[in-house]
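Dissemination and training. As part of the outreach component of the grant, students in the summer workshop were shown how a complex can be specified as a set of sequence lines and then modelled as a single object. The example used during the hands-on session is reproduced here so that future cohorts can follow it. Participants entered these lines:
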Amino acid sequence: MKVSMVFPRFFKWLGLLLFILGAAIPYEGDVDDITQPLGLLIQVATFTGLLFMAGSRLKEEDEWSQHIRLNSIQWALLVYMAIRIGMKAIAFYTRDPDWLPVSFQVNMLLIIFIVLFYSRTKLIPFLSRKHQE
Amino acid sequence: MQNSIKVERARKDITQEALAQAVGVSRQTIISVESGKYIPSTILALKIARFFHTNVETIFTLDPKD
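and obtained this result:
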């Protein structure tokens, strides 16, 4: 089966590195202020890192992993929308529209997807194999 | 959808890994198909059937729920 729309496998580690570097940069200012070069750099590094991790090829990429990928995107979108609605409700009741950074909201969808996808393709098969042994 | 891959494998005495390699997928795919968690594509179903020298309907049968 021809698999498309995935980055090479090493992009997972490149993405993790970019994400950690982006998250570890000490910055006092507002990360969401993209007029500041460092704020923009942090946002680009974390977002690109997550994108690389989310879209990188598995060791054995086939129709099942494509199915899990698509299913995880669907669930991630549902969970993301539920969290967003919850956040809107909290922001409304606390009268504080800025209580959660925009950059976190942007990255949240990819973070949920990565957690879902890797837990279903790596963690659950690993645990079930351990259980079988 | 039900399938008899496990039975066919036992009959031929081959492992999930060997079947996975023969049809060009991961072992996890075979595990998911065998356990009924994942319904394979037509191409994979045909490849599995061809591997066992039989037709698709012998291995994959419809459930009353389907």
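The two ends of chain B are 7 Å apart (CA to CA). Students were then asked to discuss how this feature might be tested experimentally.
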